[in-house]
Amino acid sequence: MLTHAQVWSAIDRLAARAGLSASGLARRAGLDPTTFNKSKRITAAGRARWPSTESISKALVATGTSIEAFVGLIQGATAPARGVPLLGFAEAGAGGYFDDGGFPAGAGWDEIAFPAVDDTHAYALEVSGQSMEPAYRDGDMILVSPAAPIRRGDRVVVKTRDGEVMAKELKRSTAKSIELKSLNAQHPDRVIATEDVLWVARILWASQ
After folding, report:
1. What pLDDT, in 10s, does the model give residues 148-162?
2. By C-alpha distance, which of 204, 81, 208 is closest to 146?
């Protein structure tokens, strides 16, 4: 029999996989930040409360997670892993690794096992250096989805037409430019003209 605790624990695992708190997951899903908080898991009368199917659906879309993978989280299992292409972040700016849409292309990619995502074009980048701390540290693997929808507040990988590749938080996107917030306070935020952007892909989560 399915229990309230199993479902709420699965939501917590889903948030952790995405490198988020429960409230962070709710925000990313476009929900009230308190939707998944501990206080919302019981009624005023002290009875266990189920999360709504709408809130779960939005959380799955926001994290690029299939319903099958979520069922695995309910059962306490890790989503099945599959091999995804792996490239060093420092190499991503070089030519020959991506097509113009930001999808992996060409030779030179390694492979690493990551929990399955609903994107056969997903790939991993290995972080090097300290420029993305404290969000990502040297040696972390970030899973990137070029097909996932992107909204304000998402962490993204951006490649410019001059070959620069960066990981930032999307602050704002208009027809003329994109505004990017640095993940490291010691590095400036960026505003890049849309015509200078080759592609933008969403970071789904990180192996830390």
Report:
1. 889 899 999 999 998
2. 204
